[in-house]
Amino acid sequence: MPFSDRRVPMPNINGRSEPSFYALFISTLRKAPCLSPSPNAAFRSISEFKPPRPLPSSCLSNSDHCSHYFPQVILILGMSRSQGLSLKRKRPDTNAASQPLLDAERVLYDLIRSKEDMGIWTRDMKRETNLPDNVVTKSLKALQVKKLIKEVVNIQSKGRKHYMAVEFEPSKELTGGAWYVEGNLDTEYIKILKETCVKVLSKLKVATAEGISESINKTGLCATECSTQQIAEILRALVLDNEIMEVRSSGSGEFSSIPIGAVCYRCTNKGGLGGGGPKIGAMASIPCGVCPRITQCTPDGIISPKSCAYYAKWLDF
Amino acid sequence: MTPEYGIKLAVHLISTDFGDHAAKVCDCLLRKGTLALDDIVRTAKLSPQQVKTYLKVLIQHNCVQAFAMEHEGGCGEGPVVVTQYMLLFDNILHRMRFPKLLAIVSKELDKECEELFEAFLKHGWLTLQQILDRVPSNQNEGNCTVQDALRGSFTKLVNAHYVERCPAPDPFLVPPDEEKTPARKHDANSAKAVEELEIGEQCDIAKATPSKAKGFPVITDTCGDINGDKSIGNPPGVVIGKKRKQDALKLDTESGAASEKDVPWRANYKELVCHLRHKACIENVRARLDSGAAIVLSAMLEATQSAEKNVKEEISVLLSISTITEAVMQSEAGCSMTLERIRASLVQLGCHPNGVGADRTYNIDLKKIIELAQNDEVESMVLKRYGREAHRIFRLLSKSCCPLETTKISDTTFIEKKEAAKILYKLWKDECLHMEKIVLNESRQSQFMLWKVKKDTFWRHILDEMYHAALNLSIQIIELRRDKHVGALRERDVRLAILLQASLMKLDDALMLFHDF
C-alpha cells in the first residue's frame, strides 16, 4: 500500500475524532481508478460518498464531513502527488529529449511546445509546417504514443483536434475557465454554488457580491475559494432565474452597512428559502397560452377550441 | 391597426349580443376604418335599412360613434358634409368585462347604484326619464320615494364619474390636422390610429346638451346629405355644436327650460379603466415587493385620482410627504404605518424625492410598474412554453440594452453553447427574438449571430395571441351554456363554467395590461 491510514493524522471535529467515516472514505478512494482530477470533483466525491456499511448514529452528517475532512483529504492527495505517491501504478519516466524523433515529428513537436498552454489546431499545424496531411497525422500519432503530446478539448470549438505538449495544462481560453470540466459545463458545481449563494443571501437579507463571496469563503461552505468575480457571475444567473433581485443601496435601513448606490442583492418573494413558486401568468395558466399549434387554430377549423385535445384535458377534472 | 384576432374577438362579442348582421357591420368597420353609410352597405352586403338599424343599435350601445365631417366634393363640386361611422373597438371589448366593471361600482358605492349601473351596461344610452320610467307604474304608493332613491343613485354615479353624458349624436368635426401627424407620411396604420384618436377626442368634447337630446341619433343617407344639405355650407373650421346653433336656440325657445331628463347618459369607461389600472399597479407591487409598498401606492393613487387627465398617465401627480402620510394613515390598512416605514416603502417603489427639506415631493412612475407587470406576464409564458433555460436567455436579452452574441449569452446564462444556439433559434422562429448575422470575413468561423428582443413587435404578437385565447375561451363558455339548455345542470358544468369565466377574467387583466394600460 502506498500509504496507510495509520500514517495520516486523524482529523478532529470539535474534539471528536471520526475514524469510521474517514477510514471508509480513504479506503474507497484507494480503489478509485485515479486521483480526483479537480478540487470540485473531490468535494463532490465526499458529499456523495455513501459508506458501504452503516455508521454509528453518533457519526456526523455528510455535510459536516465535507466541510471538515475536505481540506485534510486535499492535503493528503497533494502530499501524495508531491511525494510521487500515486494510487496508480507508476509509469516509467519518459524524458522527451532523450527519445529519438523523426524530422517531421521533431518539427511538429517543437511547434506544439512553442504554443505552450494555448496548444494548436491540426489545421494550423499543417499550414505552419507545410507538411503533407498524412505525414502530420502519422507524426501526431507517434508523438502521442511516445507521451510527448496530448489532445485537449477547446471549449470554443469542440469539434477541432487540438494538441498540446504534456508538460502544460490547458489555458482558461481552452478549458472555458472555472466553470468547465473536461470540456463540459460543470453544472453540478454551478448548482451547488447557486444554492450556497441563495442560502447565504437568505441569512444576510441584503448583501453585495463581495459580501456574499467573503461569507462563503470564510465559512468554508464551498470547497474551493471563489473569487468575487465568480460569485458575481453566479448571482447574475440567479437574477435571471428570478431567485434573487438586484437593487441599489439607499444607505439607510437594511442598506445601512452598504455604500449608497452600490449594487446589492436580496431574495425575491418567489425564490429564497421558504419562498413560494413563481407567480403563473394568465396566458401560462390556460392551454392556449402554451399551445404549439395556436397559429393553426381557428374557430371553425380542424384545430379549433371545440375540438382541442389540450382543452379537453384541461377541462377534464 | 387592430390585430387580426382582436377583430375576430370583437366581431364574436357583437355577434353573441346582437346577431350576425350586426357582426357584419362591425367587421367591415374594423377592417376598413371609418365609413359612410353607402360604403358600409356596399361592403357588408346588407340592405340600407338593415345597416341603419344595426348602426343605431351599435351607437345605442356605445360601439359606434357617428360624426359629420366636411370633404372635398368631386367633379368640381363644392365641399360636402358626410356622416361617417367609426367603430369603438375598446368599448366592444369592455362588453367582455362587464362583471369586473360592476364589481368596481359595487365596492365603491351601494347595491342600488350597482343595479342602476347594470342597466347602463345592458342598455347603453339611458336618459334620466328612462331610468325613472323603470319604476312600475302600478306601484303608486311610494312611487316618489322609489324615484327619489333612483335619482339619488344616479347622482352618486354621476358624482363618482362612473356615468357621463353621451356625445352629440353626430357632431360636426374638424378634419385632423395633417401637420400634427407626421407619422402618417411613413406609416399608414399608425396614421389611421392617430386620426381615429383625434376624432374620438373631438367626439368626447361634443357632449350632448338638453337641446340636442332626443335620446337617439338620426341616421340620414349620404345621398340625402349630398343633395339636400349642401346648403348647410358650414365654413371650414366650424367646430362642434355651431352647426346646430340655430336649431338649438329654436328648441330652447320652444321648450322653455331645457329638460335635463332627456339628456342621454352612458357608462364612463375611461374612469373605470383608470380604476382597473390602479388596481393592477397595486397588485403588481404587492406581489413584487410587499404589502406595505402596496398600501403606500394605493393611498397615493387615491389622493391623486381626480387630478389624472389621461387613463395612461405615465407619472403620478407630485405629493408632499405629509400628504402621503396623511393619505396612508387615513386608509384602513395603513393606519398603523410609521413615517419611517412609509419612507422605506417610497424607496422600494423607486420614488426619489424632488426638492429639499419640507418641500420634498414624490411621484410614482406608473409606466414602469405597468412595464414590469407586462414583463412578468411574458416571462411566465416563455417559461411555461419553452422551459427554464429559454426563460433565462429571454430575461437576459430583455434586460440587455444591446444585441448579444451567442457565446456571450451561453457564458452568462451557464448554458452549453450548442444548447443555447438551439434555444435561440427556436425563440427566433416563434418571433420572440430578432436575429442579426455579422460576417467579419469570408470564412464560416467568422460569422456571429446577434440576438435581441424586439419589444414592440413581440408585444403586438403577444397581444394578438391573447385576443385569440380570449376568443377561444368565449367560444368554450358559449358551448357550455348551449349544453346546459339541453339537459339538466350538472355540478361538473357549474365548475367548468366557473373555471372558464375566471380564466377569461384573469386573461382579460393581462389583455388590459398590453392594450388599455
From TrEMBL, chain A:
Subcellular location: Nucleus
Main location: nucleus
Domain of life from the UniProt record: Eukaryota
Gene3D superfamilies the UniProt entry points to: Winged helix-like DNA-binding domain superfamily/Winged helix DNA-binding domain
Listed SUPFAM superfamilies: Winged helix' DNA-binding domain
Pfam families from the UniProt entry: RNA_pol_Rpc34
Alphabetical UniProt keywords: DNA-directed RNA polymerase, Nucleus, Transcription
Family: Belongs to the eukaryotic RPC34/RPC39 RNA polymerase subunit family.
Protein name in the entry: DNA-directed RNA polymerase III subunit RPC6
Species of origin: Vitis vinifera
Lineage, uppermost ranks: Eukaryota, Viridiplantae, Streptophyta, Embryophyta, Tracheophyta
Automatic annotation (TrEMBL), chain B:
Keyword annotations: DNA-directed RNA polymerase, Nucleus, Transcription
InterPro entries in the record: POLR3C_WHD, RNA_pol_III_RPC82-rel_HTH, RNA_pol_III_Rpc82_C, RPC3, WH-like_DNA-bd_sf
Residue ranges of every copy of the RNA polymerase III subunit RPC82-related helix-turn-helix domain listed in the record: 8-68
Pfam families linked to this entry: HTH_9, RNA_pol_Rpc82, WHD_POLR3C
Organism, scientific name: Vitis vinifera (Grape)
Any single GO BP term: DNA-templated transcription
Subcellular location: Nucleus
MF terms (GO), sorted A to Z: single-stranded DNA binding
The protein's name in its UniProt record: DNA-directed RNA polymerase III subunit RPC3
Family that this chain belongs to: Belongs to the eukaryotic RPC3/POLR3C RNA polymerase subunit family.
Assembly and interaction partners: Component of the RNA polymerase III (Pol III) complex consisting of 17 subunits.
One GO cellular component term noted in the UniProt record for this chain: RNA polymerase III complex
Function text: DNA-dependent RNA polymerase catalyzes the transcription of DNA into RNA using the four ribonucleoside triphosphates as substrates. Specific core component of RNA polymerase III which synthesizes small RNAs, such as 5S rRNA and tRNAs.
Domain (RNA polymerase III Rpc82 C -terminal) ranges: 153-339
Residue span, DNA-directed RNA polymerase III subunit RPC3 winged-helix domain: 378-444
